[in-house]
Structure formats: C-alpha cells, structure tokens
Amino acid sequence: MIKPIMLLRRGFASMRWRTRVTLWIAATIAGLLVVAFARLADMALAQFAQQTAERAWLPFIYTPLIGMLVVWLTTRFFVGAQGSGIPQVIAATRLARQGKPINRLVSLRIAFAKISLGTLALTGGFSAGREGPSVQVAASIMHFFHRFLPNARIVRREDLILAGGAAGIAAAFNTPLAGIAFAVEELGRKLETRTSGVLLSTIILSGMVAIALQGNYNYFGHFGIQDINLDIVVPALVIGIGCGLLGGLFSRMLLWPQRHPHLMIWQWRRLHPVWFAGICGLVVAILGWLSGGMSFGSGYGITSQVIASDLVLPWHAPTTRFLATVVTYFSGIPGGIFAPSLAVGAAVGANTAELFHLAAPPTIALCMVGFLAAVTQSPITSAIIVMEMINSHSMVISLMAVALIAKAVSSRMGPELYQQLARGFLESAEPATKPKIPTR
After folding, report:
1. What is the Cα Rg of the chain in Å?
2. H helices within 255-316, ranges in order?
3. What 3-state DSSP class applies to 334?
4. Hey, where are the domains in the chain?
5. CA of 7: how far to CAs of 14, 17, 150, 291, 314, in Å?
6. Phi, psi of 223 (to 5 degrees)
7. C-alpha–C-alpha distance, residues 296 and 300, integer Å
8. Fewer Cβ atoms within 10 A, N terminus or C terminus of the chain?
9. What values do phi and psi take at 187, rounded to 5?
C-alpha cells in the first residue's frame, strides 16, 4: 500500500517540475521576444528620425501611407492586433474563464503581427508605444505553451494569460515588481493559490531575462533628485489634481468611438478603416510639423533628454503629444499608450516647473506618475515605474500620493480605460460564441 502512494507522490512531484520547466521556458521566450521588440522599435524610431531630419516634407506622404498599409494588413489578416494589446489580454482572461475561444486575441499569429506591424507603424512616426503590445505578445506566448503542460488542469488558461501579460510589463520596463503589481492591479485577477508561486516566478524570470540582455537600466533614464522636504506637499496636491483632470480627459477621448459609435465619423471609420488611417496619419504629420518633430514616435527620446538634462520644452509640447497619441489610437494601428503617456507627463512637468519656478526633476517625476496613473487608473504600477528612475527615497510617499490623487480624480470622470476597452472585444466575441438556434 505504501509503495503505490510513494510512486504517486513521485509522479506528482515530477509533473510539478515539468510544469515549472515548461512555464520557465515560456517566460524566457516571452522575455526574449519583448527585448527583440524593444530593439526593433528603437531601430524604427531612429530610422524615421534619420529620414526626416533633412526632409521635413516626408511625413506628409510617408506617415499616411504607412498608416494605411498597417491598418490594411491588420484588418485583412490580423484582426485582434489593433490598439494597445492590454484590453485584448483582459478580454482573453475573461473568455478563457468561460471556456470560449480566444485565438483571435492571444496567439502566435497575433504576437507576430503585434511586433511586425507595431514596428512598421513606428517607422511612420506614429505616437505609439511598445509596452502595451508587449503585454499581448507575452500573453500569447504563455497561452501557446499551455498545450505543452503535462496536465493542463494544473494551471488554468486564464492564470497563464494573466502571468504572460504581467511578464510583458516586467520585461518591457525592466522592472519585475511593476509586472507583479500590474497583474494584480490592472489585469484584475487573483492567481490561484496552488499555482501562484510558479506563475509569479515566470513574471520575475521574464523581467530578469530583459535585465540580463539589456543591463539593469532605467527605462527613461535616471533622475538626479536631492532629498526633498515638506515644501513639496502643496505642489504634489495640485499636480495630482491637475494631472488627474488631464489624464481623465485623455481616457475619455480614447473611449469616444466606443461610447458614441453612432456618430458619423466613427461609422465612416468602420466602413473605410484604411482611408481613415491615412487621414489620421496626415494629422499626425501636421502635429509633428507644428511641434518641430517633438510629437513623432513614442516620446522615448525627448523624455530621456528632459530627464537627463535641463532641456526646455516649448509650451505646445504637451498638447501636440497629447493630440498625436489620441489620433494615433483612433487610427487603429497596433500600438500602446504607456510611453506616450509618460512623455505627456514629462512635458507637462517641464512646462510647469518653468512656469512656476519649481525644481524641474521632482516636478517632472510627479507629473509623469500623475498622468500615467490617471490614464490607466493603476496608481501602484505607475508609481513603481517612475520610482525606478529616482535615486531619492524621500520622494516615494509623494509619488504614491500623487498617483492615488490622480487616480481618484480620473475615476470621477470615467471608467477604467483598459477595462472599458476590453468590453468592446468581449462584445465582438459574443456573436461568434453564441450557439446557433436551429430553424425549422
């Protein structure tokens, strides 16, 4: 009697280890793909900057054409790859929980499209980030590896997709802790107790792969902030409210097509998505020309310069970046809003510091965390991402306070952005999953 029990225990232990190894391989591949995506995105941004440096007229032709090509490929071959990627992952976890098909939202095909088309869009100068798409890429990889588990019932599909999405954030921002916070805060699922340890280890491993390949660097650079005192309390309160209002407005604008689908402009977009993308590309080109090129791309370059030096931005920098990001999202290209949102916050902070004669580094940091927290309504994740850039522990409380204030203000203006966008994918999946009623 004892021998069969021992054999059963050994088999179960072996199965657990095979599960761990499978998930760790998946996490490693996810981390590698996210890093590769980051390198491709950097190359695309550099190419656009090089091509347009001496040809200011080029974006007026090139950006609309790239937008039309990307949206045509997306609508023709890769439906489900449009937009950020985070709403798709949220929708996929809910559909998986209901036992419904999710291959239109997370699959190897979608991961390939997200990387290739997202990179192509950045060569056109669209104001989009790679962080949201990285979430969908990593979730797709983890979902694919679910079939290789020795026992598929050990780890639920929705938990694996959730862990994959969090691993994408961890690798994209080089911050494993941000990935864990994002899993709990934004993707909105509690991991099952018996598998939480191994799934958390996959999130950490994916982030460690990114650190091993790219070094332990900070995403936008490093703030040189001295210890601060109570004088920051009033500015932090004002920044939290102001960025909360701006971020809430930004979210409401992104939700405009979903909340008012009957408007003629959105009906025309549904009928002619490629032409609509071309018009959006032209608007992005005009905004880039008006801003002297500052609103093109993800905003990574200009934000890094603002953080590293006392670079003075023109007054229109936040507005043009804000509008370029909204128009880019409307176009339907695969691209996220994390990096552009941080760029808007940095521009707001730089202008605020100059206008009110405040110390630039802490003001920029507070505005970055405030705007991102207001847009995503994920204050903990936002605070962790910005905390990684700061060498002063005295700002931790201020960052958390601004993030919470901005989130509270934004939540008064509308629902959570990603959760609301996920509803659109859930509603579009309903007709395909509802059983057909036979007719007599």
Report:
1. 22
2. 256-259, 264-271, 273-290, 300-308
3. strand
4. 10-214, 230-419
5. 10, 15, 17, 70, 71
6. -80, 135
7. 10
8. C
9. -70, -20
Q: How far is CA 127 from CA 87, 312, 334, in A?
A: 19, 21, 11
**Equal CATH topology for 10-214 and 230-419:** yes
pLDDT tens across 312-321, in order? 888 999 999 9
CATH fold group of domain 10-214: Clc chloride channel (1.10.3080)
Cβ neighbours, 10 Å, residue 230: 6
As a whole number, mean pLDDT of residues 237-263 equals: 94
3 state SS of 390 = strand
Structure tokens at 412: 């008064």
* Cα–Cα distance for residue pair 27/25, rounded to 1 Å: 5
Summarize pLDDT for 50-82 with one digit per residue, the tens. Answer: 999 888 899 999 999 999 999 999 999 999 999
Fold annotation for 230-419? Clc chloride channel (1.10.3080)
Residue type, 147: R
One-letter amino acid for residue 192 of the chain:
E
Query: Average pLDDT of 393-402?
Result: 86
| Gap between the Cα atoms of 359 and 356, Å rounded | 9
pTM of the model: 0.90
